[in-house]
Amino acid sequence: MNELQQAPVPTPNGGVSARSGVASVERDAFGLPGIPVFLLWLLLCGLTIWTFVARQPLLSVPLILAVIFMVVGFFIVQPNQGTLITLFGRYVGTERRNGLYWTNPLTVRKSVSLRIHNFNSERLKVNDLAGNPIEIAAVIVWRVVDTARAVFDVEDYNEFVAIQSETALRHLASQYPYDNYTDDAMSLRGNADEIADALATELATRLRHAGVEVLEARLSHLAYSPEIAGAMLQRQQASAIIAARSQIVQGAVGMVQMALKELSEQDIVHLDEERKAQMVSNLLVVLTSERGTQPVVNAGSLY
Known about the structure:
The protein is α+β, with helices and mostly antiparallel strands. The chain is built from seven helices and twelve strands. Helix 1 packs antiparallel against helix 2 and helix 4 crosses helix 5.
């Protein structure tokens, strides 16, 4: 039962890898409750002291060896930690229960934190889908869920998380534009929740080989690179001005139509086509102008 439990490593296309290496699988370790064993150890210590008092050297030596042998087998499991145990290079299991335990003193024990970790990536300079250089960074919330994979399948799972997170972030940034000027596509700036879900999904796929679970992934920084930030700001301002002007013109045309309709229905004044065109022109200038217009009072006839 000391053999390392292993499972085939799935490939990205859903198959099974043909390489000789396989993924490790965590299992529970066999550990005796520490308190009863500690009481037994105290009893052996008292018996050893008695042999010295009674001058029984033949009993003292094996008892001393037994006391030393037993004390090496004690280990403590802290809350939200797991102790991974190996014996002569073979995986025995992982003890997740909190408290004092005793196991074979010949085993090697390694403590693995099961607490939640935060990884704040560096600001990466990448090109978005449109080829614009941008700066992007993310915060990744993760924890170890399989200690066997975290210790045996990767060299350093903390470094593995950092490198894979930055790789996934670079890949994600290249799949979407920074900003979208139409309504039928996603963008990094306009679809924050969808981008976060996509990043978390990709990270979960990359990090499952290390026994790591991704709890949350969100962009913490997103901006154009300094060399194009000014030009892109002007583009955004121009787009906003165009959108505002379009709305103003639509409103002005509606108001002109309403004015002509009211004049015609209430029979206030009859205008020929030329005067209607002049009136429309004047109203559009008044309604769409950025500055207040100066009225000109016509003291003569209508024409």
